[in-house]
TrEMBL record:
InterPro entries: NAD(P)-bd_dom_sf, SDR_fam. This is NAD(P)-dependent dehydrogenase (Short-subunit alcohol dehydrogenase family). PANTHER family: 5-KETO-D-GLUCONATE 5-REDUCTASE, ALCOHOL DEHYDROGENASE, PUTATIVE (AFU_ORTHOLOGUE AFUA_3G03445)-RELATED. It comes from the Bacteria. It comes from Sphaerisporangium krabiense. GO terms for molecular function: oxidoreductase activity. Keywords: Oxidoreductase.
Length: 228
């Protein structure tokens, strides 16, 4: 006798910046929990390795490129839409970290494009599927968005804008869960570039942080800003 009970469709997530750091750790965690994944990052070779490890569909490219975002949206549509969008890709901005009085404005504009405009554009491009599937958006933020750390003004203001974007989106799209997640300091290349290898070595491994985010998605608390 055959079992005619319909199978539950697998949940689909798009994770940006997934070739290393938190993005890679989260891709591993979601894969282990049965999610099917679309992953993207600029480094094609590292991204392909991540795809082989997690069974993900790799779409290499730069999220600040509108053509690449269109490609990601097409792949998401081929999967029937997203249950989860993780806007993790981003840039630190100017390094070494300059005071705002000396911040190069062209670099700041690039940081806004990467950390604010690209996440919003991906949300816009995938929102129809997220609405239909009662999905969720995770925007990775930072405590630099809310604390006045010297030298972190450029990066912090982009993350503050991302926080506000998340709050407004949650009000405008009540059927979609929206969290801006502050993962705390992590042992990543970005942190090492900002504070040096020695200080960064004492931070948590991204593999410790990824289960916290995956648990958040599965618990589905009220939309808002979440700190680990």
């Amino acid at each position: 006798m055959t079992d005619d009970t319909p199978s539950t469709p697998r949940r689909t997530a798009l994770v940006t910046g997934a070739s290393r750091g938190l993005g890679l750790a989260l891709a591993r965690e979601l894969s282990a929990r049965g999610w099917q994944l679309i992953i993207t990052a600029r480094g094609a070779a590292d991204l392909e390795n991540a795809a082989l490890e997690t069974g993900a569909t790799a779409v290499p490219g730069d999220v600040t490129d509108p053509a690449h975002r269109d490609a990601l949206a097409r792949v998401a549509n081929d999967f029937g839409g997203l249950d989860l969008l993780v806007n993790n890709a981003g840039t630190l901005g100017a390094v070494p970290l300059p005071p705002l009085a000396a911040y190069p404005l062209d670099v700041l504009a690039d940081a806004v494009r990467a950390n604010v405009i690209a996440p919003l554009a991906l949300i816009q491009a995938t929102l129809r599927g997220l609405r239909e599937r009662g999905g969720a958006v995770v925007n990775i933020t930072s405590d630099a968005a809310v604390e006045p750390y010297e030298g972190w003004g450029g990066y912090g203001l982009t993350k503050a804008a991302l926080d506000q974007l998340s709050r407004v989106l949650a009000v405008e799209e009540p059927g979609v869960a929206v969290w801006s997640v502050d993962p705390g300091e992590m042992r990543t290349r970005m942190l090492a570039d900002a504070v040096g290898e020695q200080e960064a070595a004492g931070a948590d491994d991204p593999e410790v942080v990824a289960p916290f985010i995956a648990d958040l998605v599965e618990r589905r608390p009220e939309s808002g800003r979440v700190s680990r």
